[in-house]
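Quick one: structure tokens for this chain, please?
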Amino acid sequence: MTACLLCEQPDDTGGYLCPACTKATVRQLLALPSLYNDLLPFLAPGSGGGATRRAAAVSAPMPVSEMVLSLRGPGGIVGVAEDWAGAVRAARRMKPAVPVGAVPTRLSAAVRELVGHMPWIAVSWPDAGTFAQEIRDLGRDIASIVDPGDREDRGTRLGACPAVDVSGVICGAVLRHRPGTKVVACDWCECTYPPATWPGLKTWMEHDEQEAIAS
């Protein structure tokens, strides 16, 4: 009997990762493309031409950090996934892969490859524990940005706040409808949205998301 290199619990399979940690790592890998997309509202989309049709928010800095930009860049989430895929290929004496396409395409390809290697990683790779821990920590780092706070208190995620500050910049912070509240309020810019504004709020959220994807 050996011990799992991630949870350090006894494992009678004799591999490097126990079945539970193997399944968890697969889930965490498969979640990376969605987490990548979840970071989009935290980037600074260009101000739309119809911004004056919305009530302006109070003047506030954009909720964008170097960490968000780095995670969505070539050396961020996709870089971690591709580096590990390359390490597995080297360990298995396979030819290196050449990344093709935009970052989301490359990330999906790297995730698919790593998931395909997981049976071998769990049983045969001495670096399995370090790999699984880095994937787990990466997911937690992203979740701390896109979904912070206690799960019971943070409510339903609606999307990115479409309010515009005095300089014409879209807020972009995550809006949530919390249990027991009748008005949606942005924690970042303090703009409020009563129920009568919710249909228009959804329209503006979708508009800003499409502009951000196109930019």
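The first strand starts at residue 2 and ends at 3.
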